[in-house]
Amino acid sequence: MRRAGKSAGISLLVAAGLLLGGCGQELKKENEQLKSQVATLQKENTDLKAQVTTMKGDYEAVKTRLEEMAQHMADMQKQTKGAKAAKKK
Predict the structure, then answer these.
(1) 56: closest CA among 48, 45, 67?
(2) Whole-angstrom Cα distance, residue 62 to residue 7?
(3) Minimum mean pLDDT among 13-17, 33-37, 44-48, 64-68: which range?
(4) Under the phi-then-psi rule, with left for phi > 0, alpha for psi from -120 to 50, and beta for the rest, what region is 19?
(5) How far is C-alpha 89 from the chain's CA centre?
(6) Which has more pLDDT, 33 or 26?
(7) Distances in Å between the alpha carbon of 83 and those of 8, 56, 73, 74, 89?
(8) DSSP 8-state assignment for residue 6
(9) How many CB atoms lie within 10 A of CB 6?
(10) DSSP string, 27-73
(11) Tell me, what's the pLDDT at 1?
């Protein structure tokens, strides 16, 4: 009886080891796939950060140009009003 219990225990351990061994390979494969995905996402993140930096620079340039144009338009309106006022006199 003891011997049968011991044999059953060993058989159970061997079976569990074989099952876990197979799972280990799957886990390693999944881990490698996840590492690859992380590397890809990190590269995409770096690229997106660079794009954001570029876009911020472009935004600031457009904003500055718009302010310059608004000032130029205001100056032209003052000149136009001044010319109209001079004609009326």
Answers:
(1) 48
(2) 81
(3) 13-17
(4) alpha
(5) 65
(6) 33
(7) 109, 40, 15, 14, 10
(8) H
(9) 10
(10) HHHHHHHHHHHHHHHHHHHHHHHHHHHHHHHHHHHHHHHHHHHHHHH
(11) 45
d(CA 71, CA 34): 55
Six-digit token pair at 44?
Answer: 């995409």
Alpha carbon distance 45, 21 (integer Å): 36
**pLDDT tens-digit map of 40-50:** 999 999 999 99
Residues in the chain: 89
Sign of CA dihedral 63, 67, 72, 73: positive
Q: What angle do CA 35, 40, 44 make, to 5 degrees?
A: 145
